[in-house]
């Protein structure tokens, strides 16, 4: 029974994603980004048919396991665009440091002003780094790893959906600025969106995501102490 449930979860999720990808290609709209629509459809299906999350994750966890290899695969566009990375090394470092610090500090500060519970604030802090790193950081700082993963998904999906529009509004057109924005704020999901825009954007986003994860791991506990 468990095997059948696992296969149904895997096949169903992949099937929905393929359909949503075709829909997105036909009607290119920020609200139809496949990662967002697929998540919505799967959640709706689970709710309608009263399927427990644990049952879905019998197969879903195998999809989740692919996150690590997917992140490693991003090294390829980095290698392809290594000359650009060397050329823009200083702007990349400055952009990641400023972007990551701003993201962490504003999240912690506004949560404190709004009197959000401490464990929720600590779970919100690492929202802009990839899921495994965010969960580890939340464990160290006293947050809730599962909740941190939810915030990571929200940050990633919202960045993929509205990032291009926001970048256009503030007139950011250079591939370095676009890549830094997606990689620093929306981790892997944002990076996949950046890759749709070009290999240069995807390469910069990849390195920004990696540097942001390392920097956040070090600085978040410090900022938590200073702000909270």
- Class of secondary structure makeup: mainly alpha
Shape: globular
The helicity comes to over 70%
Unreliable parts? none
SSE pattern: HHHHHHHHHHHH
For the terminal residues, how far apart are their CA atoms? 48 Å
Number of strands: 0
Q: What do the pLDDT scores average to?
A: 86
The biggest beta sheet, please?
none
Strand content: under 5%
Please count the helical segments.
12
Radius of gyration: 18 Å
Give a structural overview:
This protein starts with a helix and ends with a helix. Helix 7 crosses helix 12. With about 230 residues, it is mostly helical. It is globular. It is about 85% helix and about 0% strand. The longest helix is centred in the C-terminal third of the chain and has 29 residues. It is built from 12 helices and no strands.
């Amino acid at each position: 029974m468990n095997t059948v449930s696992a296969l149904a979860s895997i096949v169903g999720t992949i099937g929905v994603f393929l359909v949503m990808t075709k829909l997105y290609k036909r009607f290119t709209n920020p609200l139809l980004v496949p990662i967002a629509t697929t998540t919505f459809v799967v959640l709706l299906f689970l709710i309608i048919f009263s399927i427990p999350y644990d049952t879905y994750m019998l197969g879903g966890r195998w999809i989740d396991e692919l996150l690590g290899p997917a992140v490693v695969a991003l090294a390829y566009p980095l290698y392809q665009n290594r000359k650009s990375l060397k050329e823009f090394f200083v702007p990349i470092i400055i952009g990641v440091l400023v972007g990551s610090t701003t993201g962490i500090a504003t999240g912690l500060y506004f949560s404190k002003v709004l009197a959000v519970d401490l464990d929720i604030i600590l779970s919100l802090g690492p929202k802009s780094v990839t899921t495994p790193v965010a969960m580890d950081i939340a464990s160290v700082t006293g947050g809730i790893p599962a909740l941190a993963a939810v915030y990571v998904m929200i940050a990633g999906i919202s960045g993929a959906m509205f990032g291009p529009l926001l970048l256009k509004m503030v007139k950011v057109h250079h591939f370095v600025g676009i890549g830094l924005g997606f990689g620093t704020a929306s981790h892997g999901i944002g990076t996949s969106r950046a890759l749709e825009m070009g290999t240069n954007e995807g390469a910069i986003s990849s390195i920004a995501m990696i540097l942001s994860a390392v920097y956040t791991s070090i600085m978040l506990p410090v900022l938590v102490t200073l702000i909270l």
